[in-house]
Amino acid sequence: MSNPQDRLNEPTLSTRGLQPENKETPISFLNTDIIPSHLFFNRNHFSYPTLTYSNYWLPINGLVRTPKVFSLQEIAKLPSKTIKVVLECAGNKRSLFEPKIFGEQWEKGAISQGYWTGVSLTTLLEATGINSNAKEVLIEGYDKGKRTDKNNEYSYSRSLPLDKALDPDTIIAYEYNSQPIPFKHGYPLRLIVPNWYGMASVKWIKQISLISSEFKGPYQSVDYVYYPNKENDSDAYPVTIMNVNSTIQQPVNMDIMNTGTHLVNGIAWTGAGEIAKVELSMDQGVTWLEAELEPSYGNYGWISWTYEWSVFQPGEYTIMSKATDTSGRTQPFEPFWNGKGYGYHAIDKVQVKIE
Ligand code: MTE
Fold this sequence. Notes:
Immunoglobulin-like; five-stranded mixed sheet; 355 residues; five-stranded antiparallel sheet; 2 domains; binds ligand MTE; Sulfite Oxidase, Chain A, domain 2; 23 strands; globular; 5 helices; mainly beta
């Protein structure tokens, strides 16, 4: 029998919602370059689906020249690629908006990074051919259920514009960190869309269809939409690529430390280019000091950064981190307010006391 005491010593996720299961990684457990699957956040809209692995097939149909049904064995034989990817939920850091915005109150841990292996979606689409009137690729998940705002039952489905679907790094993944994808993260096949917020990476793929019009499913036309106006839904636009962002991992908020030299470290990531620099401020943004960036691997990962902070004056400090990417985007002081609280990327802050 397991001793309940043992569990207290093991890193675990923090629960934000029980049904469906939504859990995030406490920031102090995001301290490795690759996040093992037991520390990988869970974001679900429904109960977990029931799948029969023994007769799993992937149909690709709709506006294709030859509809096909792939077996897992066929997919495994196709040329594969492995990419290191940051997967960040669009609602990550929602709890930091003030005033609070309705939705799961994610702190800073609805994010993970790891190696995904699979076949380019474009390889599968080469096998089926694409009709000239196809505009989008619709990916349907096996999970489904009711929403509070609609009567029908919906599956978790989302589409990608053709150009993003045909990007060779948009993959149908079957492994995470060299192991079959854990069930909760999409076994046996999951879409991985690097650079986009996590909602695009559909888990438990049931089928892929090519369509000629804009898909209007609720996980695309109601949720995962930025609503910038408080009064109405005007000027709404879809959530796609990740904002430039950073998180301070050490020290943690409310740390009490002695005077001396302390390592300040964290991560920074972006969905547009690479991280160009990370700056820190200990004086409310009056002066900024450049952090050292660790070498990065690939284009879609986060970058770790460090800074040796020498502090000899006791008192209370706010440490701020601000990332800039190669596409010229910088974290702003104030978050971009939007009605559903997506894409929080204001300058990160932790407060510490020096004694
Ligand atoms: N795919 C399916 N089928 N069902 C879902 O609820 N959630 C999406 C995406 N893909 C979701 C899904 C969202 S919003 C995010 S952030 C990621 O999966 C979360 O992936 P994870 O649970 O593996 O962390």
